[in-house]
């Protein structure tokens, strides 16, 4: 059986500081992606110019630039990209994600199991100290959470992939969240679970991402974490075990923010 074709979808809004590194990493894969789709959501900075410059520099690269200018928001932009992807498997990352070189290869391996409808993996925080140690800790934590949350396996939006067929199965059910109150990746996870579609985890499917969320104020970070609770309430999920990620994020925030601030001062 031939490996699954892989599309990568990258929603982008004013990402001129990160989109180049994101695309270069997506291009420098041991197994190339079949297409790399940047979906521009009304950017007013140099995002589009950078994407077009890379298309000109790498004319044979499968970089696709699309515009979703009808609605402002991550979810409609994500949906637009997923709808236009042509791969058997659709990766979805953020514009500040920096894929490890073997990411596409790891995705293909994960989807060799025909029962796998979606997959997620750990992250390496590239703007924090002790990055490789942090990756091991992140991987160990996510593996522990799989045991704690039991049948509710959760995708991570900065590093996830799903079969095109699985996306089509939940496409019309996935919440649009016009009030911007939910975690869109958790929402997808719960819709997949409701349709008895398997979510897997692969330690080999690694991406780098920024720890810039730690720059938020404590109140803003708390509101961000509470998106978990609002998402669970939306889906009428009452089980306490699935709330473990919320407790962990809130408990580690003070220590990680201190490390982040020290790192920023040393630059």
UniProtKB/TrEMBL annotation:
Gene3D superfamilies: Spore Coat Polysaccharide Biosynthesis Protein SpsA, Chain A (3.90.550.10). SUPFAM superfamilies: Nucleotide-diphospho-sugar transferases (SSF53448). Coiled coil: none annotated. InterPro entries: Glyco_trans_2-like, Glycosyltransf_2, Nucleotide-diphossugar_trans. Residues 7-160 form the Glycosyltransferase 2-like domain. Signal peptide: none annotated. This is Glycosyltransferase family 2 protein. The lineage of its organism: Bacteria, Bacillati, Actinomycetota, Actinomycetes, Micrococcales.
């Amino acid at each position: 059986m031939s490996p699954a074709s892989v599309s990568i979808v990258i929603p982008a809004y004013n990402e001129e500081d990160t989109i180049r590194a994101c695309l270069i990493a997506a291009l420098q894969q041991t197994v190339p992606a079949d297409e790399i789709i940047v979906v521009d959501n009304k950017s007013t900075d140099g995002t589009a110019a950078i994407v077009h410059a890379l298309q000109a520099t790498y004319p044979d690269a499968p970089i696709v630039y699309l515009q979703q200018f009808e609605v402002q928001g991550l979810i409609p932009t994500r949906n637009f990209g997923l709808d236009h992807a042509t791969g058997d498997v659709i990766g979805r990352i953020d514009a500040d994600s920096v894929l490890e070189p073997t990411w596409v290869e790891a995705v293909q391996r994960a989807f060799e199991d025909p029962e796998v409808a979606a997959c997620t993996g750990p992250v390496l925080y590239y703007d924090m100290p002790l990055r490789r140690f942090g990756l091991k800790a992140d991987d160990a934590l996510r593996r522990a959470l799989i045991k704690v949350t039991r049948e509710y396996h959760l995708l991570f939006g900065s590093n996830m992939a799903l079969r095109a067929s699985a996306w089509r199965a939940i496409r019309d059910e996935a919440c649009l969240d016009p009030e911007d109150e939910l975690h869109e990746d958790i929402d997808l996870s719960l819709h997949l679970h409701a349709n008895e579609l398997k979510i897997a985890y692969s330690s080999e499917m690694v991406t780098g991402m920024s720890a810039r969320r730690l720059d938020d104020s404590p109140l803003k970070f708390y509101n961000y974490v509470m998106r978990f609770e609002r998402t669970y309430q939306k889906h009428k999920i009452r089980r306490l075990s699935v709330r473990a990620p919320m407790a962990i994020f809130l408990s580690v925030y003070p220590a990680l923010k201190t490390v982040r601030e020290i790192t920023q001062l040393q630059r």
